[in-house]
Amino acid sequence: MQSNFVFSPLGQLPPSLSTIPDAPKSLYFAGNTQLLEAKYKIAIVGTRRPSHYTKNFTSLLAQKIAQNHGVVISGGALGVDIIAQNAALPYTIMVSPASLDKIYPPSNAPIISQIAQKGLILSEYEKEYAPRDYSFIQRNRLVIALSDWVVIPEANLHSGSMQSAKFARKYQKPIFVLPQRLDESTGTNFLLQNKLASPIYDIDAFIEMVFGVREKTDDVFLKFCEKLPTFEEAYLMYGDLVLEYELDGKITRENGRLKVV
Predict the structure, then answer these.
(1) Residue 80, H or E segment
(2) pTM score, whole prediction
(3) Any long-range contacts for 241-245 (C-beta under 8 Å, 24+ apart)?
(4) Are 86 and 107 in contact (CB under 8 A)?
(5) Residue 34, by phi and psi: left (phi above 0), alpha (psi -120 to 50) or beta?
């Protein structure tokens, strides 16, 4: 799909790219290059078919990164990538596997167009370049090299996201994952099992670690949960909000009662 982006050569490679062994010869951009100077840059990459649990986590994490003026970097792919970038707008950088005269993937065109207008899109291909199999690996290396931290919410063992994890280890970028069930997300479970990644049990704690701040909240529902109500009592008053907070890891059930995490 052809784009209508106005794009130009980037005058100088970002320092984080100039030091990698397979640095691109040049980059082309559309959007706000000041995002490259952000103090906090976090890659969020993962499966194209995320679970509902992963979708909620990814969106909330990206929102909170953006709220703290951090930048989310990803590849614009279906699933985790585009969910994170949409939630982080305008604080997001997309690295395209195609030249910028093409929108890839076409199904994400509305959001990718917004990233070009409000965020930043980069490509190492000048023009008329359609992605090939190796283009996605090449894109992933740039996503990781540009970032300071790498978050992989969900990934299969043999996937492009695991290639990103290899780049993260090669470039010495810390990796974080969302804990998943044993029979799901075999890639992130492998990283945890082999101590190649750290788990994110609490999004606010992760934000505090990266940005040095913890969000204050006057959340009425959380204050209610501090009284250790039963699930039935909470559901009667707050309905599906109980399930939403439980899914986000803000509350947990112990002996039939709700507890703030």
Answers:
(1) helix 80-88
(2) 0.82
(3) 244/56, 245/221
(4) no
(5) alpha
